[in-house]
Amino acid sequence: MSEKNQIQDLIAKRAAKELTGPCVVNLGIGIPTLVAKYIEDENVYFHTENGLLGVTDVEEGQIDPNLVNAGKLPVGETIGASFFNSAESFAMIRGGHVDVAILGVLQVDQSGQIANWAVPGKNIMGVGGAMDLLVGAKKVIVTTTHTSKDGKSKLLKKCHFPITSTRSVDMIITELAVFEVEEGKLNLLELMPGITIEEVRDKTEADFIDQLKERAK
């Protein structure tokens, strides 16, 4: 497994620990899609914006080209899965029927606002259901690498790219640390294995409160 894949799996595995059934969970594109393989709780039900509740993995030989998630990746269906149109799917999201949304981001700021749908001057996939999920999901978790490909922090004082919503996320999980957003402030809750607080400080532009230090008092 490549170093990139190891990092992504580390983040996804940690995010999976936040999911306890019964709950309905929507997974964004990228690292969030990896979370499902670390869930053994049969009462965690995965939802996709294009109209399926009860998403599961699918073996290569069993792929149905017409059965895909919102990111156009092939998926399977659990026993008892439900199909519906996109309008009903978004009504579920906007109506508060999704318990947890796990999203990838381009940037996140120290108040928990995220940018994940547009890079000025570049063409990317677009917003998808992120705006709706930020408004409608009861809890929003961000899974992302701590820095961009050029080594710059993704955790910023203020997002440079257009923000997705004025609602702040609840938790941020990277390969370095786990943060919680509370009352518009970033709180460091946990260091990933082998990571030091100095490394987190060095790679984080955003201001944060060191809860590890507070607990040690």
From TrEMBL:
Annotated protein name in UniProt: 3-oxoacid CoA-transferase subunit B
Gene Ontology molecular function terms on file: CoA-transferase activity
Key word Repressor present: no
Signal peptide feature range: none
Family membership noted in the UniProt record: Belongs to the 3-oxoacid CoA-transferase subunit B family.
Keywords per UniProt: Transferase
SUPFAM superfamilies xrefs: NagB/RpiA/CoA transferase-like
Top-level taxon of the source organism: Bacteria
Pfam family, one: CoA_trans
